[in-house]
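Lab meeting minutes (informal)
Scribe: AK
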Amino acid sequence: MTDRQEFTEPPQFDLSILTYDEFLRFLFDRKIVDDCIERDQYFFGGAVLFNADNPRQLVENLTTMFGSVKLLLSRFSAPQISQGLQELFDPMGPAVERILLSSNVPRANRQECFRSIGRMYTEVVVEWPEETIPSIFEMLWHAIGMEFWFEISRRLTSSLSSEDSQKLDDMFEVLREMLLSPHGLCQHFALHGLGHVRHPDGRRVIQEYMDRLGPDVSPSRRLWMEQCRDGTVM
């Protein structure tokens, strides 16, 4: 008979214990690592479980950070900031969208965080200093929308709770405001986000946007917008 193997609790990582300045330095005061697996190890070491004992504090740090990206660009390089944001929403890392959508976060805090994300796009991303826009800005709302609907499907419910409807409405309002931006880049990211958030009014809003554009849109671009409208965009 062999000895029973002793179970060892996997190491955990809790971003909510960091002060705001520690949070910034942890995310952005880093060398650039191109390989995603090496980058995960570089950021989180052996941690395999991620939690937030104080989710409200983490969301407050996120809100302040998203609203301060323009200022942070004078402290950290653009690649450092995009790399840190990429790690925050990495499904193999903290995936902070799970915490942001948690019922443990008051609606008012979540709303303000959504709004600060929207302001980051309308005020900063549209003037991003790198020639190529980092992929995290394409995928951020994708990650939030996918996490929202994943949690709904896990509960096997055919209808949204009042709290779920509020979350959906709050995401939609920010994305709708982004779509009103005069910057085509911001409009693009808003369309992509609306395609993944899949609010009941999203189809109408995107169709009205397409109608305003008229026929002067390439077939491939129109097909992509139709996928956003129909909630099938990748």
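Next up, CB showed the second protein from the same session:
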Amino acid sequence: MQESLSRKPDRDPDSAPAPPSSLSSMHAIAMPEAMQRRITELYEKLNRIDHYRLLGVAATDDTKTIKRAYFALAKEHHPDRWFRKDIGALRAKVDAVFNALTVAEATLTNAQKRAEYDAYLREVLKTRINRRQAEALEVAKDWAAAAEVWARIVEQLPTDAYIQHRWARALLRSRSGYDSAMAAATRAIELDSTRAEYRVTAASLHLAEGRDRSALAQLAIACEIEPDRVDLGELHAALAERVARNR
């Protein structure tokens, strides 16, 4: 999605960096700045770290240790800490972090779920070389080749929202396979509805196909998830103006 909101985007807006100092640009909120930074940094890592790393435990730790780690983190990150307090744009991130902690604890303290998750992590390890290859192709701007590699990774990790998103994004940038790209973008959102960048990729794909209203709906959700993203707000406003003009 270009700043001009052209139909066939040269770049999608989730490739644009967030404002360099979104924390400092926020109005005064009822959360210490150090905590704001911790929440933001942890939120940014959620789709790239596993349950063990999130809870700060080892893969060999027992259930008692995992529960102890969870309760310590849950006490710090529970949304109720900020009940009826103005924490501005961080509200959605606080909720996402706590939900991720809860899912991690529920998974790792259930023997069957933990075994399934460990099997999933073994599959993740098998894709490491392919991931590096796909990322190198993206750096080289060979988006079509990158999309092919991401497609192979998706076959191995079909329930990984981040991988689905990367495949959709590569297809978008290659300007090909829009049906597959939209299916992958939709699947990424189904698997993880807390990521603004997934919504932005879906919006870009809708725009590429001339579906302005659908794109606007996705951008609106992205703005709700990350209301401190000035760039997303500007994109949403520009598209809303165009939709209104074309009624």
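CB comment: Residues 206 and 215 are 5 Å apart (CA to CA).
No objections, moving on.
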